[in-house]
Amino acid sequence: MVEMTEKAAGLIASARRSAHDNVKTFAPRIYLPEGRRVRCAFRSGDTTFFPRLEDVIWIQARRNYSEVFMTTENFTVREVLVSLERRLAQHGFLRVQRSTIVNLDHVVEIRREGRGRYAVVLSNGSTVDVPAAVKDRIEQLLTIE
Question: Phi and psi (nearest 5°) for 116?
């Protein structure tokens, strides 16, 4: 019985290695080349935009729509902020208000506006008011320790 367990463990390990190698060989499109820029699809009416995420500065909710502010242009998409937040969180975007998501790569500074209130200044000069807890979270995410 012990021999079967060791043999089974060996077969399972071999199968895992083989499956991993097969994925690399037969599905290379899954592995993005180093340095490739990530894009995201935003549908606006009959048009679908594919901007580089590094060019998206922030997103503002407008009821069932969202306005996407980029380095070069702005456009409106029919997608709620919750959906955008889910798609973009893993790419360095953070929801800082009920109606605003910012790209952390575009945060330039944080200013104190008053007691417990702060303003995040973005690379295009826009400012977004945030509470102290969100300010602390942004500092935590942007600080190297």
Answer: 75, 5
